[in-house]
Amino acid sequence: MGVDLPLLDFSKFLYGNPAERLKVAEQITDCFTRHGFIKLKNHGVSDDIVQGIWKWGKLFFNMTTEQKMKIIHHPGPDPQRGWSKKGAETTSKLRKENADGAPTGELLDEKEHFDCGPPGDEQFPNIYPEEDLPGYKEFIENYFAAAQKACLEIMSACEVGLHIPEGTLVNSCIPAASELRMLHYPAVSIETLEKGLIKRAWPHTDFGIITLLFQDALGGLELEDRSDPFHFVPVITESSNEMVVNISDTFNRWSNGTIKAGLHQVNVPPGLRGSTHGSVPERYSSVFFFKAHREASVGPLKEFISSERPAQYSDINALEFHREMTDILY
Q1: Positions of the region Disordered (predicted)?
Q2: CB of 299 within 8 A of CB of 253?
Q3: N or C: which end of the chain has fewer CB within 10 A?
Q4: For residue range 30-47, what is the model confidence (pLDDT) as tens digits?
């Protein structure tokens, strides 16, 4: 059957009449329910910011290792901040089926990344290469603000599409506790990937509410085809300003398992599928992990609990859940 992932015009929700808003909202929640993913255009994250992702991503990751080491992230259960070198995070651990008999710790990710949280975060302070890369902090903070705003508007659309009271989702996301990630996947030989111990990113779900993703022209993001479990299909974006959005674990918990998180991976890009030798070029992308505020409950919402479907998840707060999941990555 394959995956029919439509490109939805989010401006019809942002600026449309009530009928247009309802139609787009229901399309969004239907697509999330069926696939765990949507694609949006006219989403409010400006072209300038999206183009800045590629500009500043290349500038950051082309810094010397010595420069990046000044802001290295030290692994642990708290939110990630600064630079994580290749192999620091292991997404294979988030899904036990990935191991398939392989020794623990051998299934590595072929990527490096920069992470930050809300501007001015006092609980988990951000760190930037301010001396080595002037202007980077300003760009990242502007990008964070635009992505956070877009996510809150998507939450509003979900409230409309799911026919639940206004504020049910949005109010649990203020103040901001989201995380922004800039990603670089170095060039790697197809032979290395074919050995089966390294992937650009292993099949996994994210553990926030939703994740926004922008990918460069190379591509490589794949989602699970739910009509053919454990078969992945490429997510094609026709322009750099098309935004891919996937449902993540917290939304799955809030909906009591009725809207499941989107399983995805980063694989050989579509143009190189089937090749047995050669090199996969470097890839740049960026993700915005939209999170509930740290004290918000990530247990099932009352709107999704019934005598026929009792609560399936524990009532813990978002920071506790984050720490539980991050601890698995290291």
Answers
A1: 73-105
A2: yes
A3: N
A4: 999 999 999 999 999 999
pLDDT, tens digit (0-9, with 9 covering 90-100), for 234-251: 887 877 789 999 999 999
CA dist 45 and 244 (Å) reads 12
Output the CA–CA distances (angstroms, integers) from residue 30 to 5, 23, 36, 277, 306, in the order listed.
11, 10, 9, 40, 21
In this structure, the number of other CB atoms found within 10 A of the CB of residue 122 comes to 6
Residue with tokens 């996301």: 173
> Quick one: angle between helices 136-162 and 18-35, nearest 10?
100
Secondary structure of the chain in HEC code, one letter for each residue: CCCCCCEEECHHHHHCCHHHHHHHHHHHHHHHHHHCEEEEECCCCCHHHHHHHHHHHHHHHCCCHHHHHCCECCCCCCCCCEEECCCCCCHHHHCHHHCCCCCCCCCEECCEEEEECCCCCCCCCCCCCCCCCCCHHHHHHHHHHHHHHHHHHHHHHHHHHHCCCCCCCHHHHCCCCCEEEEEEECCEEHHHHHCCCEECEEEECCCCCEEEEEECCCCCEEEECCCCCCCEEECCCCCCCCEEEEECHHHHHHCCCCCCCCCEEECCCHHHCCCCCCEECCEEEEEEEECCCCCCECCCCHHHCCCCCCCCCCCCEHHHHHHHHHHHHC
Tell me how far apart the alpha carbons of residues 146 and 298 are, in angstroms, rounded to a whole number: 24
What distance in Å separates the CA atoms of residue 53 and residue 183, rounded to the nearest whole number? 10
Mean pLDDT of 266-276: 78
**Least reliable range by pLDDT among 10-19, 47-56, 276-285:** 276-285
pTM exceeds cut of 0.85: yes
Contact criterion met (CB below 8 Å) for 258 and 304: yes
Q: Please check whether residue 128 is in contact with residue 121, taking contact to mean a CB–CB distance below 8 angstroms.
A: no
CA dihedral 317, 144, 112, 135 (to 10 degrees): -140
